[in-house]
Amino acid sequence: MCRGIMGSRIIENQYERKVTAALTPLIPCSAKLPIIVLFTDFFFKENSAIAFLSLYVLSIFIIILCALIIKKFYSRNVPSTYILELPEYKVPNIKYVLIDTGEKIISFIKKAGTIILISSILVWFLLSFSIKLDYGVSLEESILAQVGKMISPIFIPMIGIDSWQVAVSAIQGLIAKEQVISSMVIIKGLSANNMNAVSVFEGGGPFDFFTVPSAYAFIVFNLFCAPCIAAIGAMKKEIGIKNTLKITGGQTILAWVLGTVIYQTGTQIENGFVSVGDLCVIFLILVLLLKLIKSSKKPYKNNVCNYCGVCKGKNKTKGIAK
User: Fold this and answer.
1) Rounded to whole angstroms, how far apart are CA atoms 124 and 172?
2) Global confidence as pTM
3) Helices (H), 75-93
4) CB within 8 A of 18, min separation 6: which ones?
C-alpha cells in the first residue's frame, strides 16, 4: 500500500495526486488478508470463498463510489495531461526475479516482524499490569482494558455489544493491520500450539459473541478505516499533514458507517424483521447512487471538451464565419 501511495508522486496534476493517495488505502492489501481469512473461514464455512470475493467486490464498488463523489463535489475541471508510457514487455530473467523477490520478502519480514513483535510485547505488558503497575492482574483490571473501555462504546452499533477487547484489537490496526489478529490471539490467551480460527472464537472467550453480521461488519470496518502508521506516513509525505488527517478521518467515519449499516441490516435479515420501510430506504439509496453516477457524466457543452482550446477556437471561427 505504501508503494502505491508513494507512486502517486509521478502524477503532475495536484488534484489527481490527492485523489489517488486518498483512494489507495481503500484497496485490500496483503496486510488485511489475515483478518479476512480468519473471519470468513470460521463464520462462513463452505461459503467462505463467496464471502471473501464479496469483500473485494465491495471494495471496488466503494472506491468507484468515493471517486464519483469526489469528482461531483470537489472536481475543479482542471485539464489532465497525465500520460503513461508503457515499456516494451520482455520475458523476465528468472535469476533476477528470484533475487528481487527474495530481497523484498526479507525486507518485509524484517519490517513487519519488528513492528508485530514490538506491538505484541506492548499488548502483553498492558494486559499483564494494572494502572498501579501490579503484575498478574485479571483482564478486566489491566491497563489495556481501561483504555479499551473508553473507546468500546463506539463499536456497539457495529458489533452489538460493548467489548473493549474488540476495540483494542481494532485500534492495534493503526500500527499494522496484521496486529489485529495478533492482539486477538494475545487477549484470548492462546499459546503457539493452539492458534487457529476455532480457538479464537470458541471456548467461552472474549470473542465468542461474534455472529455472521457482526463478523462481516468488523471485517468491513478494518478494510476501510484509517490505514497503518506506515501508510499514513507515506500519505503525509505525498500530500501533507492537513490533507492526510482529513482523508484518514473520513475513511474511519466511512468504515464505521458501513460497518454499522451492514450489522444492523444483517441482524434484521437474520431475525426476519425486515419491513417494507427498510426495503423502501434501500431502494431510495440505490436510486440516489444511480442518480449520482449519472450526474457525474457531464456531457460537453456545445460539443466542446474541457481540455485543450483547439475545439473552442474552431467553434469561435465558425461563429465568426456565420
Assistant:
1) 13
2) 0.74
3) none
4) 239, 243
What are the DSSP E strand ranges found in 40-104? none
pLDDT tens track for 145-193:
888 888 889 998 888 888 888 888 888 888 778 778 888 887 777 544 4
Higher-confidence residue: 15 or 84?
15
Query: Which has the higher per-residue pLDDT, 155 or 284?
Result: 155
- Per DSSP, the three-state class of 227 is coil
Q: What are phi and psi of 176, to 5 degrees?
A: -165, 135
DSSP 45: G
Torsion on CA atoms 111, 114, 116, 117, rounded to nearest 10: 170
Instruction: Compute the distance between CA of residue 168 and CA of residue 151 in angstroms, rounded to an integer.
Output: 8
Cell numbers linked to 312? 473552442
Q: Radius of gyration (Cα) for the chain, nearest Å?
A: 24
DSSP of 2-16, one letter per residue? HHHHHGGGG---HHH
| Backbone dihedral region for residue 281 (phi beyond 0: left; psi -120 to 50: alpha; all else: beta) | alpha
Average pLDDT of the segment spanning 215-237? 86
Residue with cell 426495503: 279
As a three-state string, the secondary structure of 175-193 is: CCCCHHHHHHHHHHCCCCC
